[in-house]
Write a structure and sequence with these properties.
Elements lengths: L4 H6 L19 E9 L3 E9 L2 E7 L11 E10 L7 E3 L7 E13 L11 E8 L3 E8 L4 E6 L23 H10 L16 H19 L4 E5 L9 E3 L9 E7 L5 E7 L2 H9 L2 E6 L12 E8 L5 H17 L5 E4 L5 E6 L6 H18 L4 E2 L11 E4 L26 E2 L14 H7 L12
Parallel strand pairs: 18-19
Antiparallel strand pairs: 1-2, 1-6, 2-3, 3-4, 4-9, 5-6, 6-7, 7-8, 8-9, 10-11, 10-14, 12-13, 15-17, 15-19, 16-17, 16-20
This protein binds adenosine-5'-triphosphate (ATP) and manganese (II) ion.
């Protein structure tokens, strides 16, 4: 039986923000992560999911793509699966005191037999990470000592691990992380009421907690934000441009269809997100492309907008009909609540396509639904065409248009969240049902969108 006893007795969870964790059911896809850990000695923690925990090794020099390198890997106590999301500082005096940065993540696949007690003399495996890929071997020497070796294959790796010095999740350096843990939050007016129930600090804490899940959907994407400096009751601004420079936020000049230049901006790391919240931006609406490839969207989005009087069952049926069409086109789709009246269905695009192509694809799908079920759906944006129907909004797949980001709160009553959910939860969760508290609780579960960008 897997156990976290060793892990838990070594740590005092009153002092460290590391998760206490528990043994969970292992998923179908085994996960792995690498954490850069600047403790008494600098090293990389290499962790492979097995039996509901993370088998863990400390690798002083870190993994190497050079097939001639044999990297010593010292097996340490099993860590909880939730440890793979931990990034931050472990305070002085605590076990492992120092800074931890998420260096890589992904899934792994053994290609030789694994014993539950991990007492094999060696094993081979494939890593499908963002930075580590391809075939690898671990050889057991004696006691806790193993060697990690790259096998020959055709994956192209980096030369020097030290040059890749930013978090795979939050895009910050070790120095950023240790400074942040000392100085955050620098929040002005933290007790200001945004609604009768929630303060600015509640919202700030919320975004800090969900950032690890949210950032892949907003970092390096042009954004619009909705600001509410005086709360829900005050004036609310939709902003696409930036006046001042802030850490973690960058401007770009963009030429539009009419050949006019206009400035947009984007967030580059977690500080950008938090400084937006400091400036009272509470809703985040990114583009569906990243600045690295602005002219090719990497996401298709369908927004189901029901006629106001439509029953929720009909709306859910619409979401299912849309999914069945996407399934038949071999397009894997993901579901989230809008935090408002509807649901959003997103499709990650693996193949490069232009905005024109993406827009046409989305339009074809909406038109197909309309033709197949003319009494249920319309692809026409006009409200008077929507009576008793659902508008399948495909128009968002246009360059310069935005949609609310996963995990963004909505500036509506109770501040609901646009929440990623499992397909099997569609019938159980209303579009505006997930609040910040519920969203935070859900972070303990397996991420229903885990393989979105895989
Ligand atoms: P619902 O489920 O209630 O329809 P939603 O997120 O699908 O929620 P809206 O909140 O109405 O829909 O947003 C519609 C679109 O308009 C989104 O693409 C959003 O990014 C954009 N948007 C929102 N507010 C503004 C605004 N003030 N100015 C311009 N665009 C906006
Ligand atoms: Mn909508």
């Amino acid at each position: 039986m897997a156990s976290l006893k060793k892990y838990q007795t070594k740590r005092n969870f009153k002092n460290t923000k590391e998760p206490k964790g528990k043994v969970v059911k292992s998923s179908y896809q085994l996960r792995f992560c690498v954490q850069h850990h600047l403790a008494r000695k600098d090293h990389y923690d290499f962790r492979l999911e097995w039996n509901g925990t993370l088998k863990s090794w400390a690798i002083p020099k870190g993994p190497s793509y050079n097939t001639l390198d044999r990297r010593l890997a010292i097996m340490v106590e099993d860590h909880p699966l939730s440890y793979r999301n931990f990034e931050g500082t472990i305070p002085n005096g605590e076990y492992g005191a120092g800074t931890v940065m998420l260096w890589d993540e992904g899934t792994w696949l053994p290609t030789t037999k694994i014993n539950n007690s991990f007492n094999m003399s060696s094993f081979k495996f494939i890593l499908k990470g963002k930075r580590l890929k391809g075939l690898w071997t671990m050889i057991h020497l004696e006691d806790n000592n193993w060697l990690l070796i790259k096998e020959k294959d055709d994956t192209k790796g980096f030369k020097n691990i030290n040059r890749i010095n930013k978090s795979i999740k939050t895009n910050r350096t070790m120095t950023d992380i240790s400074k942040a843990s000392a100085s955050m939050p620098k929040l002005t007016n933290p007790m200001k009421k945004i609604t009768s129930k929630y303060t600015k600090k509640d919202i700030f804490n919320y975004y800090e907690k969900v950032s690890i899940r949210m950032l892949p959907f907003i970092l390096n994407r042009l954004i619009s934000v909705i600001r509410a400096p005086e709360g829900l009751k005050g004036e609310i601004f939709f902003k696409k441009h930036l006046e001042n420079n802030h850490k973690g936020i960058k401007k770009i000049n963009l030429s539009l269809e009419n050949n006019k230049l206009t400035d947009y901006y984007y967030i580059t790391n977690i500080y950008g997100l938090l400084s937006e919240v400091q400036m009272n931006s509470f809703e985040f609406h990114p583009w569906s492309s990243t600045i690295n490839n602005l002219e090719h969207p990497d996401i298709l989005i369908f927004d189901l907008d029901p006629d106001e009087k439509l029953e929720i069952n009909k709306l859910r049926e619409g979401v299912k009909d849309l999914k069945s069409i996407l399934d038949s086109l071999n397009l894997k789709s993901y579901l989230k609540t809008s935090g408002g009246k509807g649901y959003h269905v997103l499709v990650p695009l693996k193949t490069k396509m232009t905005w024109a192509k993406a827009r046409q694809t989305a339009k074809n799908i909406a038109t197909l639904m309309e033709e197949k079920w003319p009494t249920k759906y319309t692809s026409n944006i006009r409200k008077d065409k929507r009576k008793g129907k659902i508008f399948i909004d495909w128009i968002r797949n246009t360059r310069t248009s935005t949609s609310v980001a996963p995990y963004s709160i909505r500036l509506r009553k109770n501040l609901p969240v646009s929440m990623p959910i499992k397909w099997s939860e569609l019938d159980k969760i209303k579009p505006n049902e997930i609040t910040m508290e519920k969203a935070i609780k859900r972070l303990n579960r397996i991420d229903p969108w885990e393989d979105f960008f895989a």
